[in-house]
């Protein structure tokens, strides 16, 4: 059994979707190792240093007021999963390439699921800039990853291009929004689906 989950590390719906997927896997007594976390960039043209959060919201939605209903719904659904999404604390919207590279590196050490959860928590709960290498290194240390190798991986131009190519592949596959799940390369669904819906998809693709 394999589940590919496409997500972006600054996507609140992906944070919720990841938690619901974790619950579905736990209820089915499966291992988190069946999940492969793959990159999708909501903002591929984001400057390397990111941008001010308010400026980002205005550029994306036109105004803070336009974004409010969607964000309020996100916060409410997060609370249903015991996730504290503190959007009002976030000051900067980062470029997510390096955070995706950290997940990519963590896969070799079989801690990618822990790392992506830590990225979500650092961004949505602690309001940290997960485009900042110091923040990424602290997550690497927490997960006992070799810091020197992590830094090298994050700063290799060929690796940056790899994330861009993986993002392009996802879009060619038809991924237009995240979270997006592919179960055993047979069945795909998009959006922050309910735990029950995810269990149904796992069972259907694993039959």
Please tell me about this protein's structure.
With about 210 residues, the chain is an alpha+beta fold. The chain has one domain (about 5-50, about 95-205): Glutaredoxin. About 55% of the residues lie in helices and about 10% in strands. It has nine helices and six strands; from the N terminus they run βαββααβαααααββα. The chain has helices spanning about 10-25, 55-60, 65-80, 95-110, 110-125, 135-140, 145-155, 155-170, 195-205, and strands at about 5, 35-40, 50, 90-95, 180-185, 185-190. The strands form two sheets. A four-stranded mixed sheet has the order 2-1-5-6. A two-stranded antiparallel ribbon has the order 3-4. Strand 5 (about 180-185) and strand 6 form a beta hairpin. The protein is globular. The N and C termini lie close together (about 10 Å).
Fold blueprint:
Elements: E1 3-7, H1 12-27, E2 35-39, E3 51-52, H2 53-61, H3 64-80, E4 92-93, H4 97-108, H5 112-124, H6 133-142, H7 147-155, H8 157-172, E5 180-183, E6 187-190, H9 195-205
Parallel strand pairs: 1-2
Antiparallel strand pairs: 1-5, 3-4, 5-6
Helix pairs in contact: 1-3, 1-9, 4-5, 4-7, 4-8, 5-6, 6-7
